[in-house]
Amino acid sequence: MFFAQLKNELWKLFGKKRTYIGFGAFIFAQTLMLMAFKLTRWQSDMERMLSGNGYIPMEFISALTVALVMLMPQIILLMPLYVSLVGGDMVAKETEDGTLRMILSRPISRVRLLLVKWIAGIIFAVVLVLALGVMAVGLASLLFPWKGLFVFIPGQAFSVLPADVGSARFLLAHLFLAVNASAVLSIAFMFSCFNMKPAAATILALSYLFVNLVMEGIPFFDRYENWFITHHFKCWLLVFSDPIPWAQIFESETLLLAACASVFILGATAFHVRDIKS
Amino acid sequence: MIELRNVHKKFGSRVAVSDLTLSVPRGEVFGLLGHNGAGKSTAIGMMLGQVWPTSGEVRLCGHDVTAHRARALHKVGAIFEAPAFYDYLSGWRNLEILSHYTAPTSKERIREVVDWVGLTGREMSKVKTYSHGMRARLALAQALLPQPELLILDEPGSGLDPEGIAEMRETIVRLHRELGLTILLSSHLLSEVEQLCTRIAVLNKGRKVFEGLIADVKAARGRVMLKTPDFAAATKLLNERGLICGTVDGKYISLKDGRTTTEVVSALVNAGVAVEGIWQQDQTLEDFYLSIVKKPPPVPGSN
């Protein structure tokens, strides 16, 4: 029964046209990024940086490098926005549409219903992140060769990796990005469980992330950085370091997974005690 | 099948349902009446475990809804006003999704119910292409899938055209006759309730103001139409003589228990008040409903 219910939740999620419009928007944005990299000074600037650090640019201006460049703004901006939209819809939209009342005239417990929905949401988040990675690599491969990976994020990462190691790390990074996406989805999902409109749940989730990001950027809060969820979101970049700081990654991932579980419990508690009215 | 004992529900400081006690035995078609905001939907919400009662006990099919919601709702189907579906999915997929929240449901069972409600041939179309009547049939289908013993209908005729209302009425009769279901019907359509229900309860401002058999309501004496040149003076006199207990719309009088129209005519004629006409009206459910939710205005001259 649990898997049948989960399958149905996935039907609901992936049966909507809007879901695919989102994926389409990502492809569009990635194509723009690819064109911008290819046709502006972006590529030559990167080549200069590589040669300035003693590397042969042609060995590292590759499909993997460009895919990562294409992914970066999507991970920071579009992915949280889109995942929040989906997470904010999951319960609140059903309440708004009246379908939740239909479901809750059935003998399913509220906690189980939420659990099924949340797991469906997590599956969606993982599929989205994987799709983003595959689309980025696929598009970049059309214009760039499969060679080494160069990662540069000012103040955060500078790594040069051979193709085989680079692709493994690229894949590993997506595992942690999936956890990030799941955490964003869980926060929006939690707000969605309260008595509010879907848009309000999405806005609250994004506001929470924005406040975290802003506070984390204020020097006064440097010593409290571990308290900000956005700080832990950056741990996916650590997989490109050599050696990989596993302890730091483990700490951040544990915190993110705990945050996912905590916000789910909070949302489920709020949902359990509230009255569902037409 | 349904037992509500001293149920009370408050939303903040607003009392939605107050001290509601209700009992619907197996096999009955029970009508729940009341104006908008009277507490009908809140009461139904509490029966289905969607609204938590502030105090009191709600039992369905012998199980406490608050403590054992899954057991209480296992053999219950429900239809709401303006039934909502996943419009972007087919009717069949909607039925699969909703039925799986109760128990695994075979394709044969879904097919059987689709046939029963008359949706065969359209079950694979997306729900957004359905007419209002087809949505009502789909709502009925989803309610029947778990093979319920109790069906709760919250304003099922809302938004339907006269043909749709007639079809809904026939369907309810079939459900009761062919499947032997116990039915709780909440509706504004008093004529439907009058034709379908064996017993009713009336809610007014969250309180139950009446519970009884439809047959008793119909048998009860109705109001009396009195035609006289000076209605106000006539009713003042009748009130002083202790013959009436109220007036309605400036042309009807309500007789006190044991009083007859002959006594009214006699009192008026003896006092020199002309009587142009007087006749007893048959009481419809609407008359009865209005008489208990709208208190009759005080008779002129009475305290």
Can you walk through the features of this model?
The complex is a heterodimer of chains A (278) and B (303). With 278 residues, chain A is mainly alpha-helical. Helices cover 75% and strands 4% of the residues of chain A. Chain A contains 11 helices and 2 strands, in the order H-H-H-H-H-H-H-E-E-H-H-H-H. Chain A is elongated and about 65 Å long. In chain B, 34% of the residues lie in helices and 26% in strands. Mean pLDDT of chain B is 87; it is low at 297-303. In chain B, helix 4 crosses helix 5. In chain B, the strands form 3 sheets. In chain B, strands 6-7-8-3-9-10 form a 6-stranded mixed sheet, with helices on both faces. Chain B has a 4-stranded antiparallel sheet with strand order 2-1-4-5. Chain B has a 4-stranded antiparallel sheet with strand order 12-13-11-14, with helices on one face. Chain B is built from 11 helices and 14 strands. Chain A binds chain B through residues 1, 4-5, 8, 11-12, 15-17, 97-99, 101-109, 113, 273, 275-278, and chain B through 11, 41-42, 45, 48-52, 69-74, 76-78, 80-86, 88-89, 93, 96-98, 100-104, 142, 146, 152.
Name the features:
heterodimer; A: 278 residues; mainly alpha; 2 strands; 4% strand; B: 303 residues; alpha/beta; six-stranded mixed β-sheet; four-stranded antiparallel β-sheet; 11 helices; 14 strands; 34% helix; disordered C terminus
Task: Name the beta content range of chain A.
Answer: under 5%
Fraction of residues in helix of chain A: over 70%
Helix content of chain B: 25-40%
- Coarse morphology of chain A: elongated
The rough form of chain B would be described as: elongated
| Poorly predicted tracts of residues of chain A | none
Order of helices and strands of chain B: EEEHEEHEHHHEHEHEEHEHEEHEH
The major β-sheet of chain B equals: 6 strands, mixed
Largest interface: A-B, 27 and 39 residues
Mean pLDDT of chain A: 91
The major sheet of chain A is characterized as: 2 strands, antiparallel
Side by side, the strands of the main sheet of chain A go 1-2
Measured between the Cα atoms of the first and last residue of chain A, the distance is 27 Å
